[in-house]
Amino acid sequence: MLVSKREVKILDFDIETRPLSYWIPDGRPTAEISAIASCWIGYPDSMQVTLLGVHESEYMLSKFIERYNEADIVTGHYIRMFDLPQINGAVLEFGLGKLEDKLTSDTKMDLVKKGDIPATQEYLAELFELEHPKIQMSQVKWRKANRLTPEGIRETFQRVSGDVRQHMELRAVLLEKGLLKGPKIWQP
Question: What's the whole-model pTM score?
Answer without folding.
Answer: 0.94
